[in-house]
Amino acid sequence: MTSTATPALALRDAHADAVRAIGDLSGAAGGESLAMATDEAVAECLVDLFEMRRRIEATIADVSARFSGGTTWSAEGFRTARDWLRARTTDGLGPASRALEGAHWVRDFPVITDAWRSGAVSRAHVEVLADAHEMFPRLSEALVGIEPELTAHACGVDPASFRRILFAQLHLIDPDAIDEADAKKRRNHLGLHVSRLTDGFVRVDGLLAPEVGQHLLTMLAAARDALRAKDASPTDDPFSPDYVPRPIADDPQIPRESKSRLSARNAEALSLILDAAASALGDNRLPDTGGERPVVHITVDSDSLIEHGSHAPGWITGLTGTHVTAITARGAQRLSCDAVAELLVVDKRGHLDAISTRWRTAPPGMRRYVLMREHGRCRFPGCHTQIREVHHIIHWANGGPTETSNLVGLCSHHHHLVHEGGWTLSGHPDHTLIFTDRLKRTWRSDPPLRE
User: InterPro entries, alphabetically (predicted)?
Assistant: First the structure.
């Protein structure tokens, strides 16, 4: 039973009771009791746990506020309360910082903090109010005055909705202050940072204006939709366009495209957007850069391009012709096969041998024919992903013509696989194509039946 003799003893006893209660609950949830409980009891327990988490987080903020004002951490030789907390727990820097951030909130926002302690709002709700104070210091006094009203709103909505309500209130109070803060943020913080890493990869980060950011999000979503495979269930009916061709080999495992994370899909989507921008015509045409359209220049040794087993790198070059990023010969083959790029082929003496076509090697009409012939699906056996790239069965550097009889549609994954995964491709796309892996196992792929 909790003692109430003194406040100090009350805290000690409540702490001990909480530790015991959490231990009992954790033991029950991890044992047979949870399995034997009714669904209704489990659901009620889960909702209560969410509320308990809110109250515990508020309690952590209260205790952190008291602790940071004490002397324990400095007496033990630590420079800050955060450093002490980080050293005494295994949660790391982030959680320690958040605990002490909450300590400031309980002092600065008393009304919404009371709701936090009761479990009516979450830490995220309090953070919305804290962000508003930080972003609009000119409106802090007004925010203090309407904190009870804002707290009432917060108790009934999720944090995202609360943010919208709060900012709508601020616009009503002082629209000029909102405009001023917006203009200041645009001046001081907007930017897009693009930097090349030592291995040639490029890091992109930054902060965009809301309207530009929304445009980017919309374009990425549209590009992801264009890339997303419209998977259909495989069928054994040979007259169905979804029929999966049988491999010639007995029991190989046909590689399939793995599910990409959203970030990986966004990278693919951005590539598609850049391709579309570089290929735009008329009024939508991008201005020249260095006297020419914005294309990627790749310099590669002629032997590396022609010899299948060569590992000599090519180079992506800058506007001045300086080599900036190494790229494998196979990567150069893949890019020159179907990319918005210009390939400069040089001999061993460094003399120019050939220049590839500047725009997509397969003209739009041929690409449309290939997509129509393949019903828009990658021709790799068993793959139902949408065609992303058009592949030369015999590479143009080896004398392969840019004709529909030498072109086949592949998804990005299998285009990489053919060029850089040790696979080879032979046959006629209007009839049967043979895919051969590095172990010399083979699969056949017939074109979809004409409808």
Answer: DUF222 (IPR003870), HNH (IPR002711), HNH_nuc (IPR003615)
